[in-house]
Amino acid sequence: SSPVGSERKETPRSIGRSPSSRPAAMAKAIRSAVVCLLAVTPAAQQVGTHVAEEHPEMPLWECDASGCTKETKSIVLDANWRWIHNGQYTNCYKDGDWDKTLCPDPETCARNCYLDGSGVREYASTYGIKANGNGLTLDFVTDTEYGSNYGSRVYMMDNEREYKMFKLKNREFTLTVDMARMPCGLNGAVYFVEMEQDGGTASSGGANQAGAMYGTGYCDAQCPHDMKFINGEANTIDWNATSDPPIGKYGSCCAEMDIWEANSRATAY
After folding, report:
1. Is the bond leading into 59 cis (omega within 30 degrees of zero)?
2. 118-131: per-residue pLDDT in tens?
3. What's the CA gap between 83 and 179, in Å, rounded?
4. How far from 225 is each of 10, 64, 91, 255, CA to CA, in Å?
5. Using CB atoms within 10 A as the burial measure, which of 49, 53, 216, 225 is most buried?
6. Which residue(s) pair with 59 in the sheet?
7. pTM here?
8. Close Cβ partners of 86 (under 8 Å, ≥ 6 residues apart)
9. pLDDT band at 230; cut points 50, 70, 90
């Protein structure tokens, strides 16, 4: 049982600013949302309050011999693309590297830094992710006045705080994708990975307070080392900002089953 990941499979990067950074002018223009944190651990992947998280809707049809029933689910953006800041407007991560003052080590970084939300408007205007009624449109390049975002990775939600876990034994799984504008050199992908349903909040022992609601807990069979947080701890040790993509010492590994990977010229099953 695994959440399904859908992405334009290109490493998250940006021109001028990383996907998880925002300039102060932009941040101050966004109306703050009010949240209540019941408990704060000494060192944890914390949740910011500048932008309230809203998940774009996506339909899912469950079918049997009598027909199909439409369910309205939603999707969430992977945490690796998100703005990470110090609780105010200073970026913890910018231009591929960690702030050395806020993040001298993994524990201090987790204590100092906050993972912020994205509203439906930001999903579209910053990341190019738009609900279109019968599915999603994922733009590869999204230009803003502050820089350009490349690619995205999203997961289907079962509810606001848990990923959808698919039970596929003795069942079929189908999807329809329009790849007409995906040229050679790029590809889209749909696949299952063995992520935890809550995004890793329970297994982290309180270190990960963001959870599935903010797209945490990604892993795959390639053990990606570009994950900024793993199990609620910042991946700052031996961080190589000159690598493409920037990578840390640790990778995030789990089982993966690819369903579909393609562009307009070729398809891999």
Report:
1. no
2. 999 999 999 999 99
3. 29
4. 14, 41, 21, 16
5. 216
6. 72
7. 0.84
8. 92, 102, 112, 113, 114
9. very high
Clarify whether 261 is annotated catalytic. yes
Instruction: Give 5-65 as a DSSP string.
Output: EEEEEEEEEEESS-TT---HHHHHHSPPPP---S---SS-BEE--SS---PPEEEEEEEET
Nearest Cα to 92, choosing from 117, 109, 111? 109
Digit-coded pLDDT (tens) for 37-73: 233 334 568 999 999 999 999 999 999 999 999 999 9
* CA 236/CA 123 separation, integer angstroms: 27
Cα within 13 Å of Cα(93), Cβ side: 31
Q: How far apart are CA 136 and CA 64, in angstroms?
A: 24
Q: Which one from 54, 107, 162, 256 is the annotated catalytic residue? A: 256
Catalytic pick from 54, 107, 194, 261?
A: 261
Known active-site residue 256: yes
Q: Kindly tell me the burial class for residue 188, based on how many C-beta atoms sit within 10 Å of its own C-beta (0-12, 13-18, 19 or more).
A: buried
